[in-house]
Amino acid sequence: MTLLAGVVVGPVLAPSSAGPGTGSVARAADGVWAQVPDSAEVASVTLTQVSPAAAGGDDVLRLSGVLTNTSDSPIVDPVPALRWSADPLQSVAEIDLVAENPLFRYGQVDYRFSDTLDTVDPGERTRFVLEVPLDDLAIGRGVFVVGVDVLAGLPDGLRVFVADDRTTVPVDVEADDPLPVAMLWPLAAKPSLLPDGRLVDDDLAGQVAPGGRLDNLLRSAGGSEATWVVDPDLVASLSAMADGYETVAGGETDEGSAAATRYLADLGDTLGQAADVRAMPMADPDVGGALASGIAGPAIEATLIDAATDPAVSDLAGRAVAPVALLGDRPVTNRMLGIYSRAGIATSVLSPDSVEPGSAQGRTRVSREKRRNVPAVIARVPPTDGVGGRSELTTRQWLLSTTAVQATTAGGPSVMVVEPSARWTPSAAAAQVLLSAWRSTQWVEPVTMAGLPGPAEGQETVALVDGAQPSPLPDGIATGLAEVVEDAERLQPLFAEPVLGSDEIPAVTARATSYAWQADPEAGLQYLDALASGVVDAEQQIELVVSPSITLASRSGRFPITLVNGASVDVVVGVDFTSQNSTRLRVENIEPVVLTAGEKRTFTATALATANGRLQVTARLVTSEGSQVGAPATTIVDVTNVGALGWTVIGLGGVLMVAAIARSRWRSRRSPAAPTGDE
Question: How far apart are CA 587 and CA 582, in angstroms?
Fold first, then answer.
């Protein structure tokens, strides 16, 4: 957290009810929020470690952190001071409120454990440690808010609070019985696989490479009691990469093949030994967003049925795997739950914020008016924000604090389920500390999802909160998908082998409507563009080449026409000809033939004319069903008999000449010899 600079004249004991507004408003020593001229964010402070993470007895609490000067001026003699509240947190909701509201459980600032640090220059950072004996705080049992406020001098001589940060710490926690806690461990990536086997980009290769996001998640939880929830689309994409693959962006490559092969083998071994494995619907379709975007319910249901029955995860695990919908990070409606249920997804995982009562945890059933109840698991999504040590601290203290409150609250939830978002991005260290805290905390009993006890008394059923409003699909997704499907249906007769058959539409729809696009709309549009290119580009890459003008020397004749298939797939095309005047000129159509990928072939077209003249002829590529594809081409056909007439005249002239010569010779033989002069 960061506070803006504010004037201070002494120790702060408590804040007023006022809070920071915008710009340069800041907290002053007397608790009033004061305006400081030209002030802006001066510094940031980040707690990176709390040790011990769960304190007790005569422990000395160590708060470690980093102070960063984010201003253009030095921060003079900064003093990190302890801020703590003696009032224990009473519920998980209050733990969440600590992160949301900086004034909740504000407490007091305590300088007894502070040392003055050296001046911090602009852009520089310095580390600090506060050592706090618990006995000096005189607090009881429970979960408490602790943190740090930094008091520092500015160049104008003012001493102000420049930054603060805080967290929660369990103290002297004792539970009669350990709290059963199930840890769901999702493995998913944004969809990238296209129907023709290409990938949109090579992002997945980096995620499964050593040190990548998915590699870290797999290695962190291997051998644990975590419940694995795997996206079948991830398995299908890695399988496509294993033997060399092609990306839309970069062409053919095998750079990620070795990593994909290794990851699939390791994932198969892990799932084969895991106590509990589930599969999310392939590509995690955004059912609520699709409904909000006007996509018909039956189409969504057909998509979800196909997505929920994909066998990829079962095949990899070597046993039947039940589908589960991870919905803890999104609004949920009764209509959505009905679609999931009819699609064969037996269990939906929901956030406590989605149901009433909001304190529900673990197994339950969602009651739906005049409809069958739907099995559900109520789970909490852990925070994984922050960078570096802050992410690790946030994740660990959240788990310790929430489980401590639940384990020690009489009449509270008797179980807890942790559900990270499907494509969560914790650091490797944050993932490890979350699992470590889950495994090693004395008041926590790690269990699988299958090992969860039945519903707690009074929570056999819950109801969805009214007014949930799922966000529509990002702009362009729904319309783009409709155009791709329409083009695929129109162009299907063009392809020698189906490029996007009716049996592939559900998988395409699941990927195109993935919930991943809510966080990254641009990537969703890129996926649709790549999907469209595999269908529409084939049409655009088939050319028809004909001379712009053709002369026929008779009433019938032939001329060449060339077909070029620049697409990466085989196509079936013919040519239909249309004359400007079909009574005077007709060109016979060329029947559809198979053109292999990259093939260029020349055909002979036959023209028949009944009169001389110049006429335009349009040539169109057509499928086997007669549908036009691609752009038409035109030519001008000039029909003339001049050439034939000339040869006729020449021929007749030759005959007449021969006849004249013959006649002359015949006459000379018949004539008497002329008398000589001697007679």
Answer: 9
Domain check: are 501 and 528 in the same one?
Answer: yes
What does the pLDDT look like over 600-616, one tens digit per residue? 999 999 999 998 999 99
Give Rg (Cα) of the chain.
40
CATH number at residue 79: 2.60.40.10
369: enclosing H helix or E strand:
none
Q: Which domain, by its residues, includes 107?
A: 25-171
pLDDT 10s digits, 53-88: 999 988 999 999 999 999 999 999 999 999 999 999
Instruction: Please identify which residue in the block is written with the tokens 């038409």.
Output: 632
CB burial of residue 664 (10 Å; 0-12, 13-18, 19+): exposed
Q: What's the pLDDT tens digit per position in 476-509?
A: 999 999 998 888 888 888 888 877 777 788 999 9
Structure tokens at 560: 């060449």
Q: Give the β-pairing of 322-326 and 277-279.
A: parallel
Asked whether residue 521 is domain-assigned, the answer is yes
User: Which residues have C-beta within 8 Å of that of residue 238, sequence separation ≥ 6?
Assistant: 204, 208, 260, 263, 264
Asked whether the beta carbons of 240 and 199 are under 8 A apart, the reply is yes
C-alpha to C-alpha distance for 668 and 587, rounded to whole angstroms: 57
Longest dimension (CA), the chain: 175
Cα–Cα nearest to 382, from 400, 365, 405, 407: 400
Domains identified in the chain, total number? 4
Buried b (16+ CB within 10 A) or exposed e, 569-608: bbbbbbbebebeeeebbbbebbebeebeeeeeeeeebebe
